[in-house]
Amino acid sequence: MCDPMLMPGMLHLLRLAGKRGRGNAMAKSSVPSIFSPRRRAARQARAIALGRRTETTQWLLDEMRHDLAERIAFMQLEPEHRLDLECDEERPIQGGPYDLITSVALLDTVNDLPGALIHARCALAEGGVFIAQLIGAGSLPILRQIMLAADGDRPAARIHPQVDNRAATALLERAGFARQVVDSVTLKASYRSLDRLLDDLREQGLNSALLSPAPYLGKAGLARTREAFDSLKDSEGRVTETFEILTLTGWR
């Protein structure tokens, strides 16, 4: 299940998907603006530039891309017309119909996820396949925990809303896919410091893309986050963080 703090947003997504599935026209203004396309593009550009200047790795994204390639090979897909989504302005996809549409670490930061799924389905040829990987619910529990400790009685929105398996399946179904499969894999990484964890997220373009930036922590708040992080270290002086990767597969 989703984190209880995130349930209102997820319920809105499901209600919106249900209304779309019934064929009711939804005004664009009814879609909540949670993410900033400008901030999302900026964080991706910074990650690419950083990767060119240094020897930083995008291990999580590389793992997702490798898993995607294995899935395509296992399914024996040999598409003549394929599209790899590198950006999504949440509008109809041009150039179709496609035999295969893929997306990696993109759709978890769009404002209109139900609409984006509908656009992907509409751009597929009959029998075409859509495969999207995103960072799902259950990710970054340590970071969430220490941010709550830092904010105290007035927690701020510092981590993205996340989709779980059940919600993802419902969204695919209500977007009109003929068949839907959602599965997840858990990846773990250990860090010696909070700064290294945050740097890792930035280097991979996975830092915040929220429309409204959270309030600045300040020196006292930052000290509390580091203290909370250090209190969780194991005998080797490391803290293990979790990333839950969802893979959504749908057929037209």
CATH superfamily: Vaccinia Virus protein VP39
Q: Total helix count?
A: 8
Mean pLDDT level = 83
Unreliable runs: 1-28
Number of E-state strands = 5
Our Rg estimate from Cα atoms comes to: 19 Å
What is the percentage of strand-forming residues? 15-25%
- Gap from first CA to last CA: 27 Å
Structural class: alpha/beta
What's the overall geometry?
Answer: globular
The SSE order reads: HHHEEHEHHEHHE
How is the main sheet built?
Answer: 5 strands, mixed
Q: How many domains, as an integer?
A: 1
Main CATH class: Alpha Beta
What is the CATH architecture term? 3-Layer(aba) Sandwich
Helix content range: 40-55%
CATH-defined fold name: Rossmann fold
Strand order of the largest sheet: 1-2-3-5-4
Task: List the topology elements.
Blueprint (H helix, E strand, L loop, with lengths): L6 H15 L15 H17 L5 H16 L7 E4 L12 E7 L8 H10 L1 E12 L5 H11 L13 H10 L4 E13 L2 H10 L14 H13 L8 E13 L1
Parallel strand pairs: 1-2, 2-3
Antiparallel strand pairs: 3-5, 4-5
What characteristics describe this protein?
252 residues, alpha/beta, five-stranded mixed β-sheet, 8 helices, globular
Describe the structure.
The structure is a single chain. The chain is of the alpha/beta class. 40% of the residues lie in helices and 19% in strands. The chain has one domain (57-251): Rossmann fold. It has a five-stranded mixed sheet, with helices on both faces. Helix 4 links the parallel strand 2 and strand 3. It is globular.
Please summarize what this structure is:
The protein is of the alpha/beta class. Helix content is 40%, strand content 19%.
